[in-house]
Amino acid sequence: MRLFIFGVGYSSKAFVERIRSRCSWIGGTTRSVAKAEQLKALGVEPFLFDGTQPGEGIREALADATHVLQSIAPDEAGDPVLIHHGVDVAAARPQWIGYLSTVGVYGDHDGAWVDEDTPAARYRAGPCSAWRPKTLGWSLLRRRSCRCRFSVCPASTGRAAMRSSTCATVPPDGL
Description:
The protein is of the alpha/beta class. Helix content is 31%, strand content 16%. A six-stranded parallel sheet has the order 3-2-1-4-5-6, sandwiched between helices. The longest helix has 13 residues, at 80-92. The model is unreliable at 123-131 and 155-170 (pLDDT under 50).
């Protein structure tokens, strides 16, 4: 498997640790040269991507990726991966797309279950208050462009992501 990760941070590094033995190559993005050196030490080929423009070499890396993991938070403009590399992901037609998100993007549902079809309930200001993978087009990408399964982790901030029972199954067994 050839895995490309948008946003190699705390949760996606844990993902890398769990899946590394199944990968022939792992590439991932970071915003800084210093962090790029850290990625190299983890065995991840670094690509600089600050979310404001397409990252150099990412299109070519995606063309060879069989699996893509998205772990970058949106900003006021939306999802920077879809804005700058959505067409590249679609053209690559990966076997699997994973999306690390937090339940916070769905708003306050008083403890009820939420999934990508749950309407957003606003409860705080900020870029995360109204976006979800579905509204940003990841589900559309899945249905129309890619042969892939779609996974949303219910928590991706801090240690909660690693303790979550749903996240304990990430990566899925069929990956």
